[in-house]
Design a protein that fits this description.
Structural class: alpha+beta
Distance between the termini: 31 Å
Strand order of the largest sheet: 1-2-3-4-5-7-6
Oligomer: single chain
Largest sheet: 7 strands, mixed
CATH topology: Aminopeptidase
Radius of gyration: 14 Å
CATH superfamily: Gcn5-related N-acetyltransferase (GNAT)
Helix content: 25-40%
């Protein structure tokens, strides 16, 4: 497995990996489409998507991290191909994304999610994220917000 940064050749994999879980559990929203199809603009503004590539070079996991508010970064559009879950691939991508934000001065990380995504929520907690009151409702499906203070 190799972890790589976003390049335009991974654009479709970013869309496909995320649309897979969005369609399985929810109805994709306008904000989802804007983020998925606007990935190049997010990268230009300082965000970064990371990908885990399998032995054949296929992207099997992705995680986008981007500036959210001053000194706060958001982890979003985090997906792992169902066939590859439970093997630490998502953890590796998430760890890389967190490192990227930390290197760029992030003091806090935020995640907006839904409790139906139990394995993702458990992973976030394993990485030190704690539940806080939801203060951002950019998506109808959000019912949990997690944060991790990086200055501790």
């Amino acid at each position: 497995m190799e972890i790589v940064r976003y390049e335009s050749k991974y654009r479709q994999a970013f869309i496909d990996l995320n649309m897979s879980w969005l369609k399985k559990y929810f109805t994709p929203e306008e904000a989802d489409f804007a983020m998925l199809y606007g990935i190049d603009g997010i990268i230009k503004k300082g965000g970064m998507a990371f990908f885990a590539l399998d032995e054949s070079g296929e992207a099997v996991s992705t995680c986008l991290i981007m500036p959210y508010k001053e000194d706060i970064w958001e982890i979003c559009k985090f997906a792992t191909d169902e066939r590859c879950q439970g093997r630490g691939i998502g953890s590796a991508v998430l760890r890389t994304a967190i490192g990227y934000a930390t290197e760029r001065g992030a003091k806090k990380l935020v995640i907006l999610s839904n409790t139906v995504l139990e394995s993702a929520i458990n992973l976030y907690r394993k990485f030190g994220f704690k539940e806080v009151p939801v203060d951002d409702m950019q998506y109808k499906r959000v019912n949990i917000q997690l944060e991790r203070d990086l200055s501790e």
